[in-house]
Description:
Layout: E1 5-6, E2 28-34, H1 58-71, E3 74-78, H2 97-102, H3 115-120, E4 127-132, H4 138-151, E5 156-161, H5 168-172, H6 181-201, E6 208-211, E7 216-218, E8 228-229, E9 234-235, E10 250-253, H7 258-267, E11 270-273, H8 278-294, E12 303-313, H9 316-329, H10 332-343, H11 365-371, H12 382-390, E13 397-402, H13 403-417, E14 421-425, H14 431-446, H15 461-466, H16 491-500
Parallel strand pairs: 1-13, 2-3, 2-14, 3-4, 4-5, 5-10, 10-11, 11-12, 12-13, 12-14
Antiparallel strand pairs: 6-7, 8-9
Helix pairs in contact: 1-14, 4-6, 7-8, 8-13, 10-12, 13-14
Bound molecules: flavin mononucleotide.
The site of flavin mononucleotide (FMN) has 20 residues, from β4 and α11.
Amino acid sequence: MTSSEHIPKKQKIESTEHVTQPKRKQLLINFFENSSSSIHWSGQWKHPQDRSHTYKDLDYWLHLVKLAEKAKANIFIADSLALFDVWGKGDKESNFKGPLHYGIQAPKNEPSAPVAAMAAVSKNVGFTVTVSTISEHPYHLARRLATLDHLTKGRISWNIVSSFLPSTGKQVLNGAPLPEHDSRYTKSEEYLKVIYKLLLSSWRDDAVVLDKERGVFVDTDRVREINHVGEHFNVVGPSLSEPSNQRLPVLVQAGASTKGRQFAAQHAEVVYVSALTAEALGKKIKEFKDLAETYGRGRNDIKYVASATVISGKTEEEALEKYEEIKKHADTVGAQVLFGGWTGIDLSQWEDDQELEHVENNGMKTYIENLTKFNPGKKFTKKSISEKISLGGSISALFVGTGSQIADQIEEYVDKSDVDGFNFTYAVWPQSFEDVVDYVIPELQERGLSQKEWPVEGGTFRENLNGKKGQTFVPKTHPAYNYRWSNDLTKEEFETKLENLNIK
Ligand SMILES: Cc1cc2nc3c(=O)[nH]c(=O)nc-3n(C[C@H](O)[C@H](O)[C@H](O)COP(=O)(O)O)c2cc1C
């Protein structure tokens, strides 16, 4: 057991009396999803109560959003563009049978499709959709994000990823290899700039006039071409979509490498951080805040969110029984399939006791570092890493117990790490999310650690994220701020402003 696992010992832990502390930082809660079954807890699709295989039905998403609304939580939908096809490949380039046989994040649907349906039956839940900067041209994505922002009335956020699976190249890059790790981030910088320009600089806020008397739909003096010429993209513009509620979706990122952190520290409004322990997480968050400051951003401009799973029940016994049942279905081979996708390392030929050493890789660069370089005293073998991943992942927290015990554990974790919130993933769907809603959220709310009401009822993602009515756009300290063409500037004035600020 590592310290990221929080499991009650045999004797019952007396829960401490808690006085309501409304001044405590209210945690940002996300339900972590994927348009496939069993995201992280490999093999749990076999659990008798698991219904994660119904991800392809609209009812799945409608049930999920109702749970999120009850918890006053947001929904985060992860994604990858190819199969986790490294495990068991031997000398071959890939082995697509592994993820399919073991049901490892496969088969998988497109992540943004269920969002509009969920938005129709909810009023406040925010939706983060993962889209890779290598999957489509930024011109298309700008339109897709604007569409989602319109349909959700500003409840959209974009998890910016640049892909890590080696076989993504052969599926979406006409067979070219997945570009080298750091160059993916360099390209993402330009990609994001094109998105900023299209969504923020090509339409003035008030360009759509809908003047029925004069017969003018759009005032064309308030629309301009962006004429972006770059290393990877040439885009004339204007954006095909009109300005949406937030104009720019809330930007989310999970970069952990040097390049990834630099990217996130400049652009992200929410960052997913992970570490083996709460203490290690605290160190990472502090470093992140220091880095963000060097880019002129405030220490609290970015919210930091960690991954976790909850296994709870009415009593401690019930929670522990649930955990024991889950363990029966854990799939350690499936875990190796996951590991292969994340790192590019095929464990199938390894001996059980073979130790994991640091190796450079072109996938999630820091995943191996998290286990090796950052934890010098700790050893991981094929067996131990497979077991760990099969039980919720290696760098994610696990909270087991009654609602009150878990709230204690979470409180301690937050105090040690200064984390702003959690991405709750599921072991058993929807049981794990129901555990959060039924047992954990009420306890957190009681302690002032979780919101009882949305700060801005019916507001945008950004307003609720920052708890400020009217804050639908990024603050001045964000690099996208100056890209926005506001109502007070003519086209010429706006272009002079861009020139003066050296925004090209
Ligand atoms: C909570 C969390 C969610 C992530 N979701 C995705 C995802 O859906 N798709 C993806 O391609 N990468 C995802 N990643 C991977 C990150 O984008 C990133 O590649 C990883 O954190 C390693 O950072 P690095 O690329 O800077 O080394 C996620 C990472 C974390 C911690």
